[in-house]
Amino acid sequence: MTTVAAPKASAPRVSRDVKVGAACGLLVALMVGAAYAAVPFYNWFCRATGFNGTTQVAEIAPKGAPLARTVAVRFDSNVSGGLPWKFEPEQTEIKVRAGELPTSMVKV
After folding, report:
1. Closest by alpha carbon to 46, among 58, 59, 55, 33?
2. Does residue 10 have a pLDDT over 60?
3. Host H or E run for residue 20
4. How far apart are CA 15 and CA 71, in angstroms?
5. What domain range includes position 94?
6. Domain shared by 48 and 16, yes or no
């Protein structure tokens, strides 16, 4: 006479299912956290490196004399043809050296 063995208890299976579920939940939480933190981290990275056209801001003006190179700055006052406005710059062009603050050259 042979006896049939009873099925094994499923206690280890429940424990493994709980571990897999917890791992999946942790993965989802990490992905949501990464998505939430991506924008601030990207903005910080761009400000630090100047990547993607982000300009870096100086806290103090550079020391030293302006460069010897002269740049011509031209002022334009175009207005759409249908508008009844007329603008004219007081000066059409000023010449400044690179790095110079030309506020004293502009008439107010």
Report:
1. 55
2. no
3. helix 11-49
4. 75
5. 64-79+87-101
6. yes
Domain count, the chain: 2
Structural domain contains residue 1:
no
Q: What is the pTM of this model?
A: 0.37
Instruction: State the distance between the two ends of the chain, measured CA to CA, in whole angstroms.
Output: 115
Q: How far, in whole angstroms, is CA 99 from its chain's centroid?
A: 27
Q: How far apart are CA 9 and CA 36, in angstroms?
A: 43
Q: Which residue has the tokens 């499923």?
A: 10
In-domain check, residue 4: no
pLDDT at 74 exceeding the cut of 70: yes
Burial zone of 99 (CB within 10 Å; 0-12 exposed, 13-18 middle, 19+ buried): middle
